[in-house]
Amino acid sequence: MAYVPIPKDLNKVKTKVAFNLTKRQLIGFTLAGLVGIPVYLFMRKFVLNDIAVIFLIVSTLPIFFITLFEKGRTDILRNTFKNIYLHKFYQPQKRVRKEVYLEQEKKNSANKTHAKRKGIEKSKAGLKEK
């Protein structure tokens, strides 16, 4: 016999109204349609069809974002931006083989310890001269 887990906190459970969408999603998508379709039809008269579609997307994207964004789920958005930032600035753009990477790390650690040792010797020599 299969068991279905039932959550104890029922505040997170959302009731679906139509088309398996919540009330908030239905209102948001309807509003996006009411804004986007007239923008597209108006812009199609003055610019090319492709550009009119771009205007449609740009005008409805904020509404979609507000519709799908939930107040309690900010950690998902924050983690997404954090991962993008880490990937962009802290990961190497060119992949290196594992052996080459380990050799580079070995040289870097050896250089750091050598520089540290050299600094200690200089400081001792400075103390002796005084």
Q: Outline the biggest β-sheet.
A: none
Q: Please tell me the overall pLDDT.
A: 81
- Overall geometry: flat
SS strand fraction: under 5%
- How many extended strands? 0
| Spatial gap, N to C terminus | 85 Å
Helix percentage: 55-70%
Question: What does the radius of gyration come to?
Answer: 29 Å
Low-confidence stretches: none
Give me the number of helical elements. Answer: 4
> Helix and strand succession?
HHHH
Secondary-structure class: mainly alpha
Describe this structure as you would to a colleague.
With 130 residues, the protein is mainly alpha-helical. It has four helices and no strands. It has helices at 23-44, 49-68, 74-89, 98-129. The longest helix is centred in the last third of the chain and has 32 residues, at 98-129. The protein is flat. 4% of the residues are buried. The model has no long low-confidence stretch (mean pLDDT 81).
